[in-house]
Design a protein that fits this description.
Strand content: under 5%
Distance between the termini: 43 Å
Protein name: S2547 protein
Main location: mitochondrion
Order of helices and strands: HHHHHHHHH
Keywords: Membrane, Mitochondrion, Mitochondrion inner membrane, Repeat, Transmembrane, Transmembrane helix, Transport
Shape: elongated
CATH topology: Mitochondrial carrier fold
Number of domains: 1
CATH superfamily: Mitochondrial carrier domain
GO molecular function: transmembrane transporter activity
CATH architecture: Alpha/alpha barrel
Helix content: 55-70%
InterPro entries: MCP_dom_sf, MCP_transmembrane, Mitochondrial_Carrier
């Protein structure tokens, strides 16, 4: 978030060094509460929406929910899953971004008195936002997040499905463990490759507090960011996002497939 919203960092390692120098280890864990509290619910809603929406499309088009879907069907279901995520994640994203861009020097790094931070934690951050900006403040950057999650979720599920089909030998109905790992990892990388530009814009819009009003909306934020820093600004944090995405989504899809197979074996 800091790399995406601030232009004085020379790169990833410079950001790490400066964060540690001024805020020590705790600086790397700002905003983590909001993410931890929502991650399981968001994942459940996202994958549940995808599975049910895909089943509904297949039933409507082919007469059976378990019919083989087309690439368009998978993409539409993925986009629906992304849209469902936005409703749940936008408030936590705002809190995370505000917390991570908050400057709170560690007492050992300065001789000046350390002022009391504006936000004492993620939940306190949400309370302050509601007080100062109203409930609408919790959905700041919603348009950018919607663009990011709908497009990236569509390519996420489509690429996973396509890679699984491509890597699974003929005669097997389900992909193997290694296929799921690789397909999930690459799907995550592709999704973040597509989603990073809107992720940058989302973060910038969400750091724009009520007393700043730097951006009038999505298009204005894109235009101003590109005008001041060039088109490369839209890809800030791309490498870090992709490096993180591969192992995370390997685990996500292995878990997803495991749950589906457990359900099919013991429930159905």
């Amino acid at each position: 978030v800091r790399i995406q919203t601030e232009n004085h960092y020379k790169g990833f390692w410079h950001c790490v060094q400066e964060t540690y120098r001024t805020e020590k280890v705790r600086g790397f864990y700002k905003g983590v509460t909001a993410s931890v509290l929502t991650v399981s619910v968001v994942s459940s809603v996202s994958f549940g929406t995808y599975k049910n929406f895909l089943g509904a499309i297949c039933k409507l088009r082919y007469g059976a929910a378990d019919a083989k879907p087309s690439e368009l069907d998978v993409s539409l279901a993925g986009a629906a899953a992304g849209a469902a995520r936005v409703v749940l994640t936008n408030p936590s994203e705002v809190a995370k971004v505000r917390m991570q861009t908050l400057r709170n020097p560690h007492p050992s790094t300065t001789h000046q008195p350390v002022s009391k931070p504006k936000y004492r934690g993620s939940l306190h951050c949400l309370k302050v936002i509601i007080k100062e900006e109203g409930f609408g403040g919790l959905y700041k950057g919603c348009s950018a997040l919607l663009c990011r999650d709908c497009s990236s979720s569509a390519i996420y599920f489509l690429s996973y499905s396509a890679l699984c089909n491509w890597l699974t030998p003929d005669g097997r109905n389900k992909p193997g463990f290694l296929v799921v790992l690789l397909s999930g990892g690459f799907a995550g990388v592709l999704a973040w490759g597509l989603g990073t530009p809107m992720d940058v814009i989302k973060s910038r819009m969400q750091t724009d507090e009520s007393d700043q009003h730097k951006y009038k909306g999505l298009i204005h934020c894109v235009r101003e960011s590109v005008r001041k820093e060039g088109a490369k600004v839209l890809f800030k944090g791309l490498g870090l996002n992709c490096i993180r995405a591969f192992p995370v989504n390997m685990v996500v899809f292995v878990t997803y497939e495991g749950v589906l197979r457990f359900r099919d074996h013991y429930v159905n």
